[in-house]
Amino acid sequence: MSKAYDFLKGCRRIFVATLSDGPPSSKPFDAVMEYMGELYFTTAIDRRLVTHQPVQIIAEKDGSNDWIRVGGSVIEVFDVEAKLVMLESYPFLTERYGSGGYQHLALFKFREVKALLHTGNGVIELDS
To answer: What integer pLDDT is reported at residue 99 of this predicted model?
Structure first.
């Protein structure tokens, strides 16, 4: 997943999209990490991410027209160590959630992931 993660690190704004009982739902978020070889992201607690699979994240590289679509099923992660790594990687999350932020942080991990990089030269499937 490193190639997808490397691309995502260079994106300022990332969006997560799900389907629901009504129209599709999407919202921006800005914290993604690779931990133990898997792709994680955090956003406000949103049960649609768990109940309405699959999920996609989409991001455009700053200063270019290259963009990525990462899709798959996700699971919510309650592992304190993984949450602490996310908080250490993104200090603004500690500011947002406080020193005990891991208790309030909703962390999701992709499973069965597929990443497609869209460039001016076409679409490239990245290793997952």
So the answer is: 64
Residue type, position 41, single letter: F
- CA distances to 18, 19, 112 from 22, rounded to whole Å, are 11, 8, 25
pTM score, two decimals? 0.86
* Per-residue pLDDT tens digits for 63-83: 888 999 999 999 999 998 999
Task: Sketch the domain layout of the chain as residue ranges.
Answer: 2-126
Render 9-35 in DSSP notation, one character per residue.
HT-S-EEEEE--SSS-EEEEE--EEEE
Asked if 115 and 125 count as a contact pair (C-beta separation under 8 A), the reply is yes
C-alpha dihedral sign at 121, 6, 44, 116:
positive
Q: 2-126, which class in CATH? A: mainly beta
Residue 102, pLDDT score: 66
Which is it for the CA torsion 51, 19, 96, 9, positive or negative? positive
